[in-house]
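haha ok so turns out i had the wrong file open the whole time. this is the CORRECT one, sorry everyone. sequence first:
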Amino acid sequence: MAGEPSGRNKIGIRLGGRKPGTGHPFAHVTGPDRWLVHKMLAVVGNPPIAISLWDGQTVAEPENPVARVTIHDRAAMFKLIADPELHFGDLYSSGRVELEGDLVRFLEVIYRSIRGNTRMSWLRRFIVWLGHRRIANSLARARDNIYHHYDIGNAFYQLWLDKVAMQYTCAYFPDPDMSLEEAQTAKLHHICRKLQLKPGDTVVEAGCGWGGLARFMARHYGVTVRAYNISKEQIRFARQKAEEEGLADRVEYVEDDYRNITGEYDVFVSVGMLEHVGTRDYRTLGQVVKR
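then structure:
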């Protein structure tokens, strides 16, 4: 429209002087857009969530909604449909998805709705299948993923992980008044009891992180450990800690993929690594354990 400034909309398409919602084909909400939103809600069990789209049109308005979600562009909608767990946080942080209401309550309702939705639609089955295909990890891809996530520097993780063992998995709070360090120590003891460790056992660990569990097992349960990890930063940190704590003769940190584990051991352990393995490679992990 003459006299109006040009710009770009949320997905980077030049508007050519037209304001969103006043004629650009990506600004109009279409019938397929509304259909996709309703299908997206059906996939997660039709929770009581109101949804508005980028032109201000409300396309889902249940009674007594716990929150209202506004999706500001079609590309954001496609991302939510493709993988809401992966994309919601990024879209929310960038402002492409806005939420009116309590965020924690919203997430609780969504996850409870998903668990209560026993009927899996064809769309949900397709999305689950597609997600599982994408998770498959080659050796090279696994290294690349780990590099971008963990090799950004140990100092960042030291800001907020426990100071005892640098555990990046859930703590165990048998007493709600425990500190994070106490709860992580309780978690480590809990794991070791489940493993039924005995002095002199040989243990192999797949995906050892910063090596806290391996050192803990060696120090408190009298075992020797070989721990595998493909993060250069984490392995460097773990080896340094083992030297400082006088455990280098009982704990060996190997910079390699779990698929390359060799040897025979009394105990196999892996904590919090399944998301890195990917569902398509669960069988591969099982074969490693069975060797």
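The chain has two domains: 31-133, 139-290.
again sry for the mixup
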